[in-house]
Amino acid sequence: MNDERNDRLDRLETTLGHLLRTGVMSAAACLALGLIVSMAAGSTPLATTILKVGLVILMVTPLMRVVVSLVAYARMRDWFFVGTTLLVFAMLVVAWMLKP
Amino acid sequence: MSLLSIAAVAAAGATAGWLGSLLGIGGGVFLVPLLNAGLGFDFRVAAATGLMTVIATSSAVSANTAGRNLINLRLGMVLEVASALGGLIAGYTVERLTKHTLSLLFAVVTAAIAALMVSRLDKRNVLAADVDPGALGGRFYDADSGRDVTYRVKRLPLGMLASLLAGAVSGTLGIGGGILKVPILNAWCGVPMRAAAATSALMIGVTAAASAPQYYARGDINPPIAAAAVLGVMLGSHLGLWFSGRTRVKWLKVLMAIVLAAVSALYFRRAFLE
């Protein structure tokens, strides 16, 4: 039981690693492309959009990590961690919803 | 945005990222004063930019650490409840703080980080005997000692409190705040140094993601500046990791503690004389 749980956590760690790498690398690619476009053509709407897409991907990557963890804990029927992860998820959603 | 200022921000990011990964404390504490005092950006713009680089560093570092059992996912998630709450509150309330308060806070925090860096120069892993890891503990293979290390988490409420404070500091000042909680997790909560650092590196991403959207919504994030800083920090921290295996960092820590003490003095001066 304990070993099986540890195996699942090991796999989750690897999955989250891939997710974080994909997120940060695609964000970096957008930011680099956006910078190149804005240097070549000035601060055009296109350049700004590409940069903003990169920044949003960057900010949403940790949120995705929380969502994937939530699914994994639900599959493990580890309800304490489902609850904990839901709390963290709720705070990240509130951060986007709150009007400053 | 001029080419020159983009290049200057990228260079500041690369310097901060390089120092941060060499010292193992994240680059935010160097980037924010470089942008604010060095390049003249408003403190909130500097902090917002710092937060974006914190998220990038967190994702990149954790992607590299994942798969070695060093990241304690369950402990991290429990502590993130506190650190994300701290970040969320800070992101929402930071615009109500005056420049004086922000300068004073930054001065106090940089002084604390400088002191922590010097006091932990010879810190080694705490290697516990074989114990039952319990619900939140963990086990990983320690390459230094060549054996499995098992640990059990103690004094969880203290770890939660440290995470809440680190989250609030992170969201207010735009730094990761890892150096504020890693010593507490290590010294008082029984988490070995490498596991504490890896878990903290994962946590700072979610923590910063709880305050960054507020900065974004207020327009404190300048896209080309943030892009240049993020790319600079990613490049710089990569170089730092590459060097860290072959340089002795002790003298560098002392030197950078002196630099941080000077930064702290500068912000104390700003808080009281300007």
Detailed description of the structure:
The complex is a heterodimer of chains A (100) and B (274). Chain A has 100 residues and is mostly helical. Chain A has helices spanning 2-41, 45-75, 79-97. Chain A has three helices and no strands. The model of chain A has no long low-confidence stretch (mean pLDDT 92). Chain B is mainly α. Chain B has one domain. In chain B, 71% of the residues lie in helices and 4% in strands. Chain B has eleven helices and two strands, in the order αααααββαααααα. In chain B, strand 1 and strand 2 (147-151) form a beta hairpin. The model of chain B has no long low-confidence stretch (mean pLDDT 87). Classes of the chains: A mainly alpha (100), B mainly alpha (274).
Q: How is this structure best summarized?
A:
The complex is a heterodimer of chains A (100) and B (274). Chain A is mainly α. Chain A has helices at residues 2-41, 45-75, 79-97.
